[in-house]
Design brief:
heterodimer, A: 140 residues, alpha+beta, 7-stranded antiparallel beta sheet, B: 145 residues, 8-stranded antiparallel beta sheet, 3 helices, 19% helix
Chain lengths: 140, 145
């Protein structure tokens, strides 16, 4: 299953808005963090490393949720529940693409993180296959 | 139980955005925008009996609440914990208090009509003493990818 993102809410993942990504700790405790998002035409993608907590969590248990709230209208949001497909190929290029979307910098390593850090971690693109999509507050 | 640092209290007391994650029966995380406040000891959210998140919290009290301001995403408060209490006592007053602070009108009657469900309320969230995970505002420039 991979549900399409409704066109009415595509802007929430194509504009530079921070999303809330939730992954599962080894004991099942949910853990959330603010992430940069991107849309590849099919799936919403986030970029992290194999070494970070959320990366380790997703590689062990791919179940995630991603919530993106419109900063100008908190009642307008998109929630995607699904499973992550982790891809290493092209992950640094993807990270640079997202860095340009969210910041004024041309690339991530060497600008946001030290260049040396690039060799110390393994980047992954996390494509979220949507199994359930919800939208907007009921009182909106 | 962790104490919420004073300088981050604004992020649990009616923050601009709070994302509550509960666990579906199969363990799938489910995240929604909620209103929350702080009673001096516990963070409180307000929901309705019969809502998915309410059923989830009864079945598994493990929750995650990420509080932030969407206009200032580098500053956030991550509260990982368990729900210690769910009560209907004072729930309507709590909701109306939240409504007053979050909006100009109290929508409890709208919410009640919208779902036709009996109100439930004031689930209190407390950081699990066994899981001392209280993270505050990770400051990487441009976000936390």
């Amino acid at each position: 299953v991979n549900l399409p993102i409704p066109e009415s809410h595509l802007d929430l993942v194509t504009r530079p808005i921070h999303g809330v990504l939730t992954t599962l700790m080894p004991d099942g405790q949910p853990q959330s963090s603010l992430v940069w998002c991107d849309y590849d035409g099919e799936c919403v993608c986030v970029n992290t490393t194999q070494e970070r907590q959320k990366g380790r969590n997703m590689l062990r248990d791919p179940k995630v949720s991603l919530l993106v709230v419109d900063p100008e209208d908190k009642g307008r949001y998109l929630e995607i529940r699904g499973e992550v497909e982790a891809i290493q190929d092209g992950a640094v290029g993807h990270l640079d693409h997202v860095t340009r979307k969210y910041t004024r910098h041309p690339q991530y390593y060497g600008y946001i993180y030290p260049l040396e850090q690039r060799e110390r971690e393994t980047r992954i693109i996390c494509r979220i296959h949507a199994k359930k999509i919800t939208r907007d507050a009921i009182h909106r | 139980m962790n104490k919420i640092p004073d300088e981050f209290l604004d992020l649990v007391n009616c923050p601009r955005a709070a994302a509550l994650t509960t666990l579906m029966p199969g363990g799938q995380p489910q995240t929604t925008v909620v209103w929350c406040d702080f009673d001096g000891t516990y963070v409180r959210v307000n929901t309705m009996r019969g809502f998915r998140k309410e059923k989830n919290m009864r079945a598994d009290p493990k929750v995650m609440l990420l509080c932030f301001d969407p206009r200032e995403p580098l500053r956030s408060l991550e509260v990982r914990g368990t729900v210690v209490e769910m009560t209907e006592a004072g729930a309507m007053e709590h909701l109306d208090g939240l409504s007053e602070r979050y909006t100009i009108q109290a929508p409890s009657h709208i919410l009640a009509r919208a779902c036709g469900a009996q109100r439930d309320g004031n689930p209190r969230i407390v950081q699990d003493p066994a899981d001392p995970c209280l993270h505050t505002g990770r400051a990487e420039e441009g976000g936390v990818p």
